[in-house]
Amino acid sequence: MTTGSYLKKFYVRDYLYLTFGLMVYAFGLIGFIKPVGVVTGGLVGVGLTVEYATNGAIPVQYTYFGINVLLFLIALKILGFKFLAKTVYGVAVLTVLLSVASKIISKPIIEGEPLMSALIGAIMCGAGIGLVFNANGSTGGTDIIVAIVNKYKNMAFGRVMLMCDFVIITASYFVQHDFIRIIHGLIVMGVTTYTVDMVINGMRQSVQIFIISEKFEQIADAINAEMHRGCTLLDGMGWYSKKQSKVIMVMAKRTESLQMFRLIKAIDPQAFISQSVVRGVYGKGFDLLKN
User: How many Cα atoms occupy the beta-carbon half-sphere of 31 within 13 Å?
Assistant: First the structure.
């Protein structure tokens, strides 16, 4: 397979994931969150607030699309077309999907359970956004605002995003005058953020294990033979004892850590072991390096 065809394969797959993620997001928002009057973060949250304030006269997708167009014009000069090109597809497709979902779903899917409905919607929205991010896509909105702020101020992306979402959700009180819905909105924000993180990083969690033992050769051989994992020997020295020692470094799946601990203990019960969680381990036996 040539480099061009290889990259084209990833390009097509990214757009499939992106479209599917936007579909999941639109269904979760229109089917579960919107019917119970909860406001989410981002420009969709602004659109929901406007729709609630106008009693449905201005649907969420109109406000979402209109503000995004305005942000595109502002950011075009500041961020350049290369950044905006990655978000145009996401914004356009999500606008269409929100319109279609609003016409198809005419009544709440879950009636009489506002918090349960909001939580289900939050999980779906988080999963959808996670799929979009995994496909290197964007839904625009506050992503653009954060990118502009981050260009001039050295602030963490997540912190600015959290501030924007918090302001949007709490400001909806002036329209709804209902603290319970504000609390539900903040819960939705938390669940959505957690779900996004799980979709992006949850399946990639691996463990990094450092082993210090006088029986390092036996342990390394056993890890190779029984665990089918490679390991690396590092030179170390205990500063208190001033003795040279070998340190075994192993990368393994999180589910393999218990088996590895048992294997090490069977060989050397006195072995010193340090384990830490790592994310995004790429290479043979782990995740493929994506282009």
Answer: 19
In angstroms, what CA-CA distances link 149 with 19, 144, 160, 161, 218?
28, 9, 8, 10, 54
175-216 confidence digits (pLDDT tens): 888 889 899 999 999 998 888 878 876 656 688 999 999 999
Q: Are 119 and 191 in contact (CB under 8 A)?
A: yes
- The pLDDT tens digits for 101-131 are 999 987 888 888 889 999 999 999 999 988 8
Q: pTM value?
A: 0.72
The full set of domains in the chain, from first to last, is 3-202 (no CATH), 205-278 (3.30.70.120)
Quick: pLDDT tens for 258-267: 888 889 989 9
CB 162: neighbour CB atoms within 10 A? 15
Which residues 6+ apart lie within 8 Å of 235 measured at CB?
244, 246, 247
The answer to whether 95 touches 65, Cβ cutoff 8 Å, is yes
